[in-house]
Amino acid sequence: MDQNLIYKNNSLFLDGLSFKEIYEEFGSPCYIYSEKTILNNLRRYQDSLKDRGLICFSVKANSNTNILKLISDQSAGFDVVSGGELAKVLYVGAQPNKIIFSGVGKSNEELVMAMQNEIKSINIESISELNRINLLSKNGKFKPNISLRINPEVSLDTHPYLETGSKENKFGISLDEVEECVKIIKNSSTLNLVGLAFHIGSGIESFEQLVPALDVTKEVYKDLSKFFDLKIIDIGGGLSHKKSLGEDLIELVISQVLKQAPNNAEIVVEPGKSIIAEAGFLLTRVQYIKKRNKNIVVVDAAMNDMMRVALYGAKHEIKNISNNEKTSNASIIVGPICESSDVFDEDSFIKVNEGDILAIFDVGAYGFSMSSNYNSRLKPSEVLVSDGQAKLIRNRESIEMLINNENIF
Ligand SMILES: Cc1ncc(COP(=O)(O)O)c(C=O)c1O
Questions:
Q1: Which of 158, 263, 280, 396 has the fewest other C-beta atoms within 10 Å?
Q2: pLDDT of residue 195
Q3: Which atom of ligand 1 is nearest to the CA of 273?
């Protein structure tokens, strides 16, 4: 277990604060984040990139404004995929020249918003999008910086939902479309092609997995540099957060990328999980235990609060915050939602009693940001542990919030 996470007298502590105290103040379900872990991971990227690149935190992983502000204050940039995310990062004071906009389905409004704010790069994902931004930029007299997000046509050994760089995937411009893109940009009086981007998916465990996509992109970069003043290679995100791969995966991968990338290219990285997954915990209280061959432990968090297990079959460690003992009888830990997929662990061996508080680990990324109001449940609160203090950074939702946005005629 990490040094910032320890059991003392049968009580689990995070950065010097006990989960029990946090639970007593904020209740459950509740997301808890370690500021220290977020900053450490960010620093790893920044130290590795030195002055050769920019880290653009992938906002979809966690879009709490307090966390975005924390990241922005470290001079990092952002990778956004919607007008809402762009608005949020501008709201917390992000510099437009550190924001990139990815996504296969940007609307006219989103493209205009990005151009008005003169962001670092709008990453174009199709010929249709390129034609559209060409027209919108002429009409609005904008001169946007754009990059082409290449689909490098490589596959990644990960969950199919987490793979984004294979030929049949919806993401990016296929290699045989690049020539057509070049024609459109050459004939445009407004578009400024500044770089190339790719993102092959989540769960990358070594530099070697990135090599095929990097090689393809380097080739295209070389070809297109004959016509355009390219400056950026954006390698996307996707590095695994698993500590079992070694503490220095970020350093290893980035240093190799820097060695192999063209010297004149600025390297943009779009990490989400590897910054914030392990910084987050979901606290949940055991409601009921149903005695079976395999006991069914019903907790008060559900798939609407954290859907990664139901969606991807993701594995998340779960610990009892007041008892680190194991039992030989397996139990299944489930939420209260009316879906059989509302499961957090099919095979848990932790010791639990009704009323105990559990912590679900590594949920800082795609945890709260994927939460919903399914079953008309209130979204949980979020708490940041910072300098030995627990700060409420999002209130638990109220019944009024569930009702007020709807109209009865
Ligand atoms: C374009 C793009 N960049 C970056 C990321 C972040 O990936 P990860 O959280 O695995 O680092 C994603 C994730 O879906 C993405 O689609």
A1: 263
A2: 98
A3: 9
